[in-house]
Amino acid sequence: MTVRVSAGTPWADLQKQLALHGQELPLDVAHPQRATVGGVVASPIPGVREFGTGGLRNWLIGLQAIDGRGRAFQAGGQVVKNVAGYDLTRLMIGSGGAFGLITELSFQVAPKPEGQLWKILALESISDLLAWLQALKSSACRPMAMEVLPSACAPWIDPDFPLQENPAPWRLALLWQGSKMALTSRRDQVKALSQNLPQRNSVWLQQSELDLLTALVHWPDPNASHYFQGRVPLAAYAEFLQQCQQGSLNFRLSAGEGWCFGPWSEKNQNRQNWLPSWLVSKGGLWRSFADSNLQILPPPQQESAWPWLQRLRQVFDPDHRIRSPLWPEPEV
């Protein structure tokens, strides 16, 4: 099934309408009552379930927009198999609206799962974490999400986060979604897999016990001056986790796709300054957000793609009429 929606529609309203037909867009959005569908597409924020469901690129099939000269253009279509013309839909994802004002969007949707099941593990070491991640990625019980976080972050994410009394320094949160029969099967498969893997303690959670998915997406932290988002290459996971442990950095790592996200506190800035340059040196990505409302700050202009992006923007908005949080104002 597909759906066509105005860009100004609140994300929560879209999901509510889809739920009436047993469907959903399996994308995780912070503040869904406030976020608009067009804003979600224009922002570069990945969701917790991206490992299992894919990102926006997997679900957005078409859009309509207006460029900097007021010219309407269309990309993609309203059907899933559409290969006509250039794939401008992917260009608009995460652009911050710099290439045009999105007015309408078309998505492929998916059946809403009957339920979800979490397994929370307390682990003693980074090597234990990596052993679990490697085993899960190649197993038949591959999860929808694999979230890594320091144990100290658990109460920030949710006061009822399980295993808080356990002294192990790491938590691994695993998510499966599907029918009751499928979830029972996944539980048995994980039980068999865990026989050969290290764990200090673990607990299973149903959705009715704790809405952990929403808690992970929102991450409230009143002490954060702004937030950061980066992408860690798989080969650098161990070094990244070691650096974060030494610097007492609060974060969550969506280990399936490598996205890391967390609060950035001014009082801890000296312990955090290594992260942006380190990510770039490892071939990763870095972005920061001004506050808990996720207002996007411009990316570093020294990125290798910056000259290409500047030329591309010149095509869509040669007079710089569109104001985007991802792009600094041109020098006069």
Give a quick precis of the structure.
With 332 residues, the chain is of the alpha+beta class. The chain has three domains: 2-111, 2-Layer Sandwich (Uridine Diphospho-n-acetylenolpyruvylglucosamine Reductase, domain 3), CATH 3.30.465; 115-217, Alpha-Beta Plaits, CATH 3.30.70; 221-289, Alpha-Beta Plaits. 29% of the residues lie in helices and 24% in strands.
Could you characterize the architecture of this molecule?
With 332 residues, the protein is an alpha+beta fold. It has twelve helices and 14 strands. The chain has an eight-stranded antiparallel β-sheet. It is globular and about 60 Å long.
Q: How many β-strands, per DSSP?
A: 14
| Second rung of CATH, namely the architecture of the largest domain | 2-Layer Sandwich
Our Rg estimate from Cα atoms comes to 21 Å
* H-E string: EHEHHEEHEEEHEHEHEHEHEEHHEH
Distance between the termini: 48 Å
CATH topology of the largest domain: Uridine Diphospho-n-acetylenolpyruvylglucosamine Reductase, domain 3
What is the number of helical segments per DSSP (H or I, 4+ residues)? 12
Strand content: 15-25%
> Which sequence of strands runs across the widest sheet?
10-7-9-8-12-13-11-14
What is the molecular shape? globular
Unreliable stretches covering 5 or more consecutive residues: 291-298
